[in-house]
């Protein structure tokens, strides 16, 4: 994480800065908005701006918007600066932290707004197989497409690849294509020249140039606008970019990693993703299995999260009971590792003793894990039944399906033609014509008062 502190906060936030740096963050300071903007334009970049509330925050946010720089802002000030705090939040600041500072509070906000995690823990053979492939290709410059459901750890896998590559001592730059509005994303990626658009008061370096010599992660690339994909394709193919408003190509030397939680072949077929771009990105595909498909990781990750959040909350070390482990293994984990982490954090806080029992493992709405398992089971059964019905129709003609539907509905209504027509949404005349046709074809029609169903 890269943190930029703006205004006269350096001394007041020294302890929080130290905590952030101890956690692997890079911290820089800028005394004024102008110095901060110059730093951001130059390619040094930041993941979070921590700003003195006495700085003109509305002007800062307006300048960021005008220059198409997408970075979250957190305001800091004394409790007597209530009006300034309100203005900062109204202008677009994400949070407000009162001063004098609580270093741990600031560190928590920093972690919540812009946290990077390098934890990569696995035990299951399904994940071990993916990691083995990652180790094989980490040292190359091949583009890698990392796919899997949300919460499976795609960004962590990208950092794993970078750390084992020839570019490990060079920048690792990540950009979330889903989190940045379409009209800002092009400038974020490629930068812009002075005067390229209203508000472009100076040249700004984009993520491609920030990552020069290192690795660029295009997170959730399936969300990128189709028109921008063409410019991205050229940058990947030719290793040059065009800043917005620029006339001279800028060479870049980077490795491209991309993630997606969507099936990109389906996106290609539906015209939302370029096939040629997919081919460029998908030199190697690392498909991360869902957590429910790697049960060997569930307990290992659970123990890791319990230990982490016990320490983070100043509690004695918690442990999971065998009953709690069994429940964790039965849960569907639709949110994968991210959901598991949040659930175990909650369990640490709700546990009445040092041993975490199933009663402490609850969903955000307060329901127990067993309720979630039962709900998922019912949903799975319903989905399976619907799938079976759909499959039973494959290979049959529309006329056959229509005939069986009409006969079954008539049987359900005990042969009452009027009720059957109402359910089917057709006129009684149409129904009678259909029944006469079926009778001529030798189909046995339910008589009034008779309940009977087709063999299909």
From TrEMBL:
It comes from Pelagibacterium flavum. Residues 2-114 form the Response regulatory domain. The modification 4-aspartylphosphate is found at residue 52. InterPro entries: AAA+_ATPase, AAA_lid_NorR, CheY-like_superfamily, Homeodomain-like_sf, HTH_Fis, P-loop_NTPase, Sig_transdc_resp-reg_receiver, Sigma_54_int. It holds the Pfam family Sigma54_activat. CDD domains: AAA. The lineage of its organism: Bacteria, Pseudomonadati, Pseudomonadota, Alphaproteobacteria, Hyphomicrobiales. Residues 120-349 form the Sigma-54 factor interaction domain. Keywords: Activator, ATP-binding, DNA-binding, Nucleotide-binding, Phosphoprotein, Transcription, Transcription regulation, Two-component regulatory system. This is Sigma-54 dependent transcriptional regulator. SMART domains: AAA, REC.
């Amino acid at each position: 994480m890269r943190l930029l502190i703006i205004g006269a906060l350096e001394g007041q936030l020294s302890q929080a800065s130290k905590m952030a740096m101890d956690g692997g963050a890079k911290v820089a300071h800028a005394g004024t908005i102008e110095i901060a903007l110059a730093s951001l334009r130059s390619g040094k970049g930041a993941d979070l701006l921590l700003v003195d509330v006495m700085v003109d925050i509305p002007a800062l946010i307006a300048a960021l918007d005008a220059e198409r720089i997408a970075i979250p802002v957190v305001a800091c000030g004394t409790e007597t600066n209530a009006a300034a705090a309100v203005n900062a939040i109204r202008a677009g600041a994400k949070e407000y932290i009162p001063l004098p500072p609580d270093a741990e509070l600031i560190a928590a906000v920093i972690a919540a707004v812009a946290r990077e995690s390098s934890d990569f823990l696995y035990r299951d053979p399904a994940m071990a197989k993916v990691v083995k492939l990652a180790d094989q290709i980490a040292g190359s410059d091949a583009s890698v497409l990392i796919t899997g459901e949300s919460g499976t750890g795609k960004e962590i896998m990208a950092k794993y690849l970078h750390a084992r590559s020839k570019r490990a001592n060079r920048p690792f730059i990540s950009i979330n294509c889903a989190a940045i509005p379409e009209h800002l994303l092009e400038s974020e990626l490629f930068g812009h020249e002075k005067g390229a658009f209203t508000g472009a008061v100076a040249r700004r370096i984009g993520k491609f140039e920030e990552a020069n010599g290192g690795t660029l992660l295009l997170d959730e690339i399936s969300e990128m606008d189709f028109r921008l994909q063409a410019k991205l394709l050229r940058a990947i193919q030719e290793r040059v970019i065009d800043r917005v408003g620029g006339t001279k190509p800028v060479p870049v030397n980077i490795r491209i990693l991309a993630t997606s939680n969507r099936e990109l072949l389906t996106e290609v077929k539906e015209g939302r993703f370029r096939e040629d771009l997919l081919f460029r990105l998908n030199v190697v595909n690392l498909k991360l299995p869902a957590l429910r498909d790697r049960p060997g990781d569930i307990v290992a990750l659970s123990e890791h999260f319990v230990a982490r959040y016990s320490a983070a909350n100043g509690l004695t070390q918690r442990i999971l009971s065998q009953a709690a482990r069994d429940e964790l293994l039965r849960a569907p984990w639709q949110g994968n590792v991210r959901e598991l982490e949040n659930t175990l954090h909650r369990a640490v806080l709700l546990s009445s003793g040092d041993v975490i029992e199933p009663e402490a493992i609850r969903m955000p709405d307060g329901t127990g894990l067993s309720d979630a398992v039962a709900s998922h089971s019912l949903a799975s059964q319903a989905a399976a039944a619907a799938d079976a019905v759909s499959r039973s129709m494959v290979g049959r003609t529309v006329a056959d399906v229509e005939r069986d539907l009409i006969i079954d509905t008539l049987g359900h209504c005990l042969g009452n033609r009027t009720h059957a027509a109402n359910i089917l949404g057709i006129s009684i005349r149409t129904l009678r014509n259909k029944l006469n046709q079926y009778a001529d074809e030798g189909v046995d029609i339910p008589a009034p008062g008779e309940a009977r169903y087709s063999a299909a």
